[in-house]
From TrEMBL:
One Pfam short name: GFA
Family: Belongs to the Gfa family.
Coiled-coil ranges (or none): none
InterPro entries hit by this protein: CENP-V/GFA, Mss4-like_sf
PANTHER family found in the cross-reference section: DUF636 DOMAIN PROTEIN (AFU_ORTHOLOGUE AFUA_3G01340), GFA DOMAIN-CONTAINING PROTEIN
Keywords: Lyase, Metal-binding, Zinc
Protein name per the record: CENP-V/GFA domain-containing protein
Start and end residues of each CENP-V/GFA domain: 3-121
Gene3D superfamilies: glutathione-dependent formaldehyde- activating enzyme (gfa)
Keyword hit for Zinc: yes
Organism: Sistotremastrum niveocremeum HHB9708
Length: 138
């Protein structure tokens, strides 16, 4: 039974051909903060060929990356929900935004850009259940 989610207005739906989402990653980078207008992003690294998107997300080419290689940020043009991001640095995977999915999430396995975490945010990292390769996020 695949995992399904959607943006807020439900124009875009996402189907992941897995029984459950892989353990998420919490990212405090400024790009994720701004793209979601929030304090951090919760995403899960999923092989691109397991993700199906119904609808037509807009794509923002985020060039403000440390590597200089643009990262594509897909979002809903109607309700603005971030959908996923992807980079040529990690061509097999995408960073899928966990907030699209209503079912419970497992605790995160990793924090990215910890230095940009606000002092009042406390995220507990759980042991890695299934190792998944994470490329440089930016
Ligand atoms: Zn939407
Ligand atoms: Zn980030």
């Amino acid at each position: 039974m695949p995992v399904t989610g959607s943006c807020l207005c439900e124009e875009i739906s996402v189907t992941v051909d897995l029984q459950e989402l892989p353990q998420p990653v919490v990212c405090f980078c400024i790009n994720c903060k701004k793209s979601g207008s929030t304090s951090f992003s919760i995403e899960t690294v999923v092989p691109r060929d397991l993700v199906q998107i119904a609808g037509n997300p807009k794509i923002y080419s985020d060039t403000a990356t440390a590597s200089g290689i643009p990262m594509e940020r897909l979002f809903c043009g109607t309700c603005s929900s971030p959908i996923l991001s992807r980079t040529p640095l990690n061509p097999d995977n995408c960073f899928l935004k966990c907030g699209l999915f209503e079912h419970p999430l497992t605790p995160p396995r990793k924090i990215v850009c910890d230095a940009r975490k606000e002092s009042w945010v406390n995220v507990e990292v759980a042991p890695v259940e299934v190792p998944v390769e994470v490329a440089a996020h930016l």
